[in-house]
Amino acid sequence: MAETAATPASFGILADDPAYNATLAARIDDTDTLARVWIKPDGVPTPFEPGQYVTIGVKVGEKFVQRPYSVASSARALDGGYELYLRLVRGGAFTPLVFSLPVGHRLRVLAPKGKFTMEPADSRVQIYVSSGTGIAPFVSMARTLLDDGAPRRAIYLNGVSYVSDIGYRELIEGWEQSGAYPATYVPTISRPADPLNVGWTGRTGRVESIIQSALRDLGVNAGEAIAYLCGNPEMIVAAERELSAFGLPEGTIHKELYWPAGKQPTGATEA
Length: 271
Known about the structure:
Blueprint: H1 8-11, E1 22-29, E2 34-41, E3 53-60, E4 63-70, E5 82-87, H2 95-100, E6 106-113, E7 125-131, H3 136-147, E8 154-160, H4 169-178, E9 183-189, E10 203-204, H5 207-217, E11 225-231, H6 233-246, E12 253-257, E13 269-270
Helix pairs in contact: 5-6
């Protein structure tokens, strides 16, 4: 069969390598540029704390191309591997490689790491602010707390460009509707005039622009809340400013930047 631009071979990705220690176990495409994938290590998966990330990579020629991704699965459910939430960056250095991989393809995964984790035994309202796929670690946090039987009141503020990009909406709104988890999902669309968003009646604007109004509408007491921010650095700077203006005390805003400010990646790190 003729190769296409979307095959691993066309990118020069090695089908196997001694350093490969995991398999792409499953994949669900939410859109043509958003996918949930499950990376299953060969042995027992290394435990992680919700909010941490794993780095995945493939061998291209003589070098590994890799990138870190926040884990979206529960830290108590390791049998299925690490669930990751990926966006395809067309022309990027790494995500086109991953999106070309068929289920069953081999790759390398590095042990979980990162300090963007939950405060222990915290009864405050959890405010999760994210842009795009930055919602992933917050899904992991809630899933883990749910498995622990210790859910905390959570408010998800997630900003995307298009309605189709609203990640994990069915899961989180399902929790809210069933009462399984005390979560409220508040997505916002930054391009309301785009034809792809026709019919949208929810909030509009970048996620940082809706923080104060959404929290007021939901009756949040700033002194009884803690915030976690994940996404692009410009959003995080602006969101931190809005949360401080809303009254969150110093030390209650935790951040995970997807890349250093002013250094947006093309999609990869090489090792």
